[in-house]
Amino acid sequence: MSSPQVSRRRFLQATAAVGAAGSVGVVSGQSQNGKLVIIYDDGHDGAMSEALPVHKEEGVPACAAIVAGYTPWTRKDHDYRLVGDEIRTLEDEGWEIISHGLYHRNLGEQPVTQPVAPEDEKIWVRDNIHGAFPDREYEIRITDGEKTATAPVVGANTGENGDYLILGKPVGKSFDPADGVTERFVESEIRRSMEKSQEVIASHGIDKPQHFVYPYGARSPLAQELATEYYTSITNYEVEGLNPMTGLNPHRLNRQQMEGRALNESELAHMMATISDENRLAVFGAHTQYDDLGPERIRKVIREAKYQGIDIVTMTEALEAAEIKPKFQETATKTTTQPPTTTGSTTAGSAATTGTTNGSGGDGGEQPGASQLPGMGLLAGAAGLLGGAELARRRGGED
């Protein structure tokens, strides 16, 4: 009988606990004073330069929501995005890496605002956020609930009637906005964003993400269905509010922004008291690129939570405290010398037909905590010798 797999982050937690000569980690997830998960969005390097030092000083973890297709392999590839080594460092420090999509594409629906004729090669929309992107053309689906058409988007602009999308071919059908016409990405594009983002993040030697943050907080019924298929949780189904620890639906989590513009000091204190008094789960979203989220604001949020006795945990740890098992168990893939291709025609639509779709994949078992890892008695005596070698192997340092 084979022993259960342990994620890279779990392995690091276990070896850190052993190296601490019996000291206990900061995250137990066992109190009844509520849980707080802090998620830093967009993969900006401020998570490393501004947030990580504060979290280390305060002894608490966080999550980093990574836009996989914008994750450079080395610093020379991008000025302000986290690179692979930095993301692995965050994971080494006890952070959990989660997905924010492949290219931060809006996965929701946009209303069509003007009548559409079969010969039209542009459609007027409330927001042209599904317009042209530098990596490739995207296919959209236009529907009134009865008729459906698809077309590639090759550009976007603004005109006398507002925003519009430029299409690569005529629509082929007529639509009346009075019928509730909407447009969104086709299923293969949404599926690609869900699946390929997991693959790209794992290619950096990081655990395959269990959790998803909708870009822009935008979703459609199809996006929700597919995110539920691929991920253990959706962390921003709604953009405000707290979550119950009992009867929690991990795919319909409320999320609250923690920048100063979203919560003033009195509102923050009141929310922390509510989390503690009612044993709630709070998911806080954060953007280090915003002026009102610097190190002092981060420290203020953490210390308010500590004052109320709230456990600051990762997303997986919060769900485990609510007795929700991970959707899959998988260690990080071996780091390669180059990232996988994520742009161009070679990857278009591939996610619709390849890969595992997590719903019933994996062994379905619960990830063990550090005290449950097989062979911990032996590991305690050999962590100093084996820990570095095992970590190097997982990162591709040896065959």
What is the number of strand segments? Answer: 15
Residue windows where pLDDT falls under 50 for at least 5 positions = 1-6, 14-29, 331-399
CATH fold label of the largest domain: TIM Barrel
Percent of residues in β-strands: 15-25%
* Overall residue-averaged pLDDT value: 80
Radius of gyration: 22 Å
**Helical proportion?**
25-40%
For the report, how would you describe the main beta sheet?
7 strands, mixed
Descriptive report:
With 399 residues, this protein is of the alpha/beta class. The protein has 2 domains: 8-104 and 193-393, Glycoside hydrolase/deacetylase (TIM Barrel, Alpha-Beta Barrel), CATH 3.20.20; 113-180, no CATH class. The chain has helices at residues 8-19, 46-58, 84-92, 187-203, 221-230, 265-277, 295-307, 315-321, 376-394, and strands at residues 35-40, 63-66, 96-99, 110-111, 122-125, 138-143, 148-159, 162-167, 182-185, 211-212, 233-234, 243-244, 256-257, 280-286, 311-312. Strands 1, 2, 3, 12, 13, 14 and 15 form a 7-stranded mixed sheet that branches. Helix 1 crosses helix 9 and helix 2 runs parallel beside helix 7 (295-307).
